[in-house]
Structure formats: structure tokens, C-alpha cells
Amino acid sequence: QVQLVQSGAEVKKPGASVKVSCKASGYTFTSYGISWVRQAPGQGLEWMGWISAYNGNTNYAQKLQGRVTMTTDTSTSTAYMELRSLRSDDTAVYYCAREIMGGYIDYWGQGTLVTVSS
Amino acid sequence: EIVLTQSPATLSLSPGERATLSCRASQSVSSYLAWYQQKPGQAPRLLIYDASNRATGIPARFSGSGSGTDFTLTISSLEPEDFAVYYCQQRSNWPTFGPGTKVDIK
Fold this sequence. Notes:
The complex is a heterodimer. Chain A has no helices and 11 strands. Chain A has strands at 3-6, 10-12, 18-25, 33-39, 45-52, 58-60, 68-73, 78-83, 92-100, 104-108, 112-116. In chain A, the strands form 2 sheets. In chain A, strands 2, 4, 5, 6, 9, 10 and 11 form a 7-stranded mixed sheet that branches. Chain A has a 4-stranded antiparallel sheet with strand order 1-3-8-7, with no helix packed on it. By secondary structure, chain B is mostly beta strands. In chain B, 0% of the residues lie in helices and 50% in strands. Chain B has no helices and 11 strands. In chain B, strands 2, 4, 5, 6, 9, 10 and 11 form a 7-stranded mixed sheet that branches. In chain B, strands 1-3-8-7 form a 4-stranded antiparallel sheet, with no helix packed on it. In chain B, a hairpin with a 6-residue loop joins strand 4 (33-38) and strand 5. Chain B starts with a strand and ends with a strand. Classes of the chains: A mainly beta, B mainly beta. At the A-B interface, strand 5, strand 9 and strand 10 of A face strand 5 and strand 10 of B.
């Protein structure tokens, strides 16, 4: 069965960077894109961006341009999301997700809580 | 950016009742709209895609309709496990989500 397993919770200071991993299994990794979605505590969902696991093409949310980098390692079927220059409003649960049909999500990781606090 | 507005913010109903949730887009998204269900502490689950197509394994009591700017998610008869937050999401342009509708027990 399709599974996306994410790395564990992180606590970071403002200005630091965080890198979250997402290991996929149960499907052909390079046949789907991976999207990253975040959810601040008690808030709604925000689409951060997308990476093609086939060729590494990326598309990032305008508000995160310059601070976010998404990559994949096809040898281990793992996707990564790095966010730099962290601020307190980056505190959120970060989800990786399998993208289908050019913009929907059919499988989600369990989420990784990133807390930014001094 | 296409803004999605959902109403009502909270819907208080009893098991067995019919739930009707609304999602409105700031501009036409054609039929490129999905609905997700999220329970506390869990990731969202895809219910409906392309406005009216049920995702794999989703019960028939969930149905979606609409096109352009106005969409509806209907739950024909609420089961105890259906009390959750529901989000709409469009993929016509950069993907965006609505703010959610919480369906809670009356």
C-alpha cells in the first residue's frame, strides 16, 4: 500500500533552517509528483510547492520563493523540503503528499511539526 | 491567486441528518475542485475530485456538485465518523484551499 513516512518533529531558532524528509513506498516513485502542504496550529492548509519525482522540476509558492528548496533522491524514493531563514510564523505541521491529476492529493504523510521559537 | 470561501464556518447537525457545505471561488475554476476531510491530529483525506468524482473508497453518501465558481459537498446522512473539518481546494491555478467548514455534533 502507498505510504509516505516523514521525519520527526523539529525545534528551531529564528533564522535557522530545517530539512524534512519524506520516504515513499508502495508505488513507483518517479511516476508521481510530491507536493508539500503546511498547516499552522489551528489554521487551514497552505500549498507550499511541488516537485516532479521524474525529472526534479519544481514550482514554489511565490511567498516562499528564495527560502524553500524541494529535492528528491530517486535511489531511496525520498523527497526533501528545506526551509531557510525560519520565522515564528513558519511554525506548522508540514505534510508531504502524492500529487495526482495536476494538482490534487491522494496520499499524505503523517506530518512533521516544526516549531520555531527563540 | 484564486481565493476560496467556504460557508458556513461551522455546521451543527445530528447523526442521520443531511449536511450541505458550500465553496465559492473568486474566479472560475471550471470543475477543478476537490474536497478533503480532516479529523483532529490526522492528515486530510481526499473525498471528491473534479467537483463530482468520488475518490477511491469514499462512501456513496458523499457527493459533490457545481462548476465555475459555486460548489457543494453533500453528505446525505451523517455517520458518527463524518464529524470533522472539510476543506475545498482548487487546481485551476496555483492550488489553494478554502478556510474549512467544521461539522460538529449538535
